[in-house]
Amino acid sequence: MLLFCIIAFLQTIYYLFFFSRIAFYRKPNPGHLQPHPVSVIVCARDEAPNLAINLPGILVQQYPFTHEVLVVNDNSFDDSKYVLEEFQQHFPQLRILELTQEAKMIPGKKFPLSMGIKSAKHEMLLLTDADCVPATELWIESMQAAYQPETEIVLGYGAYHKQKGLLNKLIRWETFHSALQYLSFAQAGIAYMGVGRNLSYHKSVFFRQKGFSAHYQIPGGDDDLFINKAANKKNTRINIDPNSFTLSKAPNTWQQWKKQKQRHYSTSKHYQWQHQLQLGAYSASQFLFYPLLILCLFTVYWPYASCIFVFRILVQSIIYFKSMHKLKEHDLWPFFILFDIWMFFYYLIFASSLFKKPPATWK
Asked: What is the value of pTM for the model shown?
């Protein structure tokens, strides 16, 4: 019973001290929008269908200041080159960087992204993926409006399109749950990651950190490991304005999703130790909560365990309800208890990802 109380108390601390920062988040007054020229960078490898579908959403952005859209075509063997050249005839802000040689000893997306950043014309960078589309035509403007004089990094939300089926809901739940953590931690001054689907930072930050040199040998981490190293409580802000969201198509099969999450989690063991401790404590408390609850219900302490459970559910319901509305995932709220229980099995399934070597290719 004592261990269950400790776990429940720890969970409550996370919800009330961290996650409430998203639930009760108020958009700061942006003041006068400064005219920041922006370089939007998209890395693509054999992404012709996605470029044809999603790139127009980036090219038609209503941004009143100078900007470019730079697509890094990384050794594609499909029709990406011709799709991009066709778009370039109609959108003069589109630039194409063709890479025709593989980088040796630098696996993953880091080399093409590095080349794109070095080739970018402007100091302000806005990154997304070829399989992403801005939720609105005000994406660039909204992400840039989050910058303040001391801001160097802006963390955005990369959501998934809503579709029918259990898998889609589980993927969107996990995406929301992860965002709730990294966005709320950033609000608390403990930024530890961002997502490459929707991320902005200064070009000078990239060079000050010497690019991805600290973790160039790791296939992943061009977003989360870079932010883990470069972000601090003064230079990082979040943006959860719905105009700033991007949307992606969720994996169609369990195997695709599992492969994706294994690639993502393989980088988390390289986070700073304090971030690993904070995230590990939360994951452990979430994993242990329901098994300990069940055990306590078969003891004389079951009335106390029941009261603790009800209190936790009430706190969760409020935090999730308001946070899901902020991130436009409110259709998931009626099922949050089932999703919460599912997380026990989720950790069992993906725990091995922490020890597996990720694939060297990023596509």
From this structure: 0.92
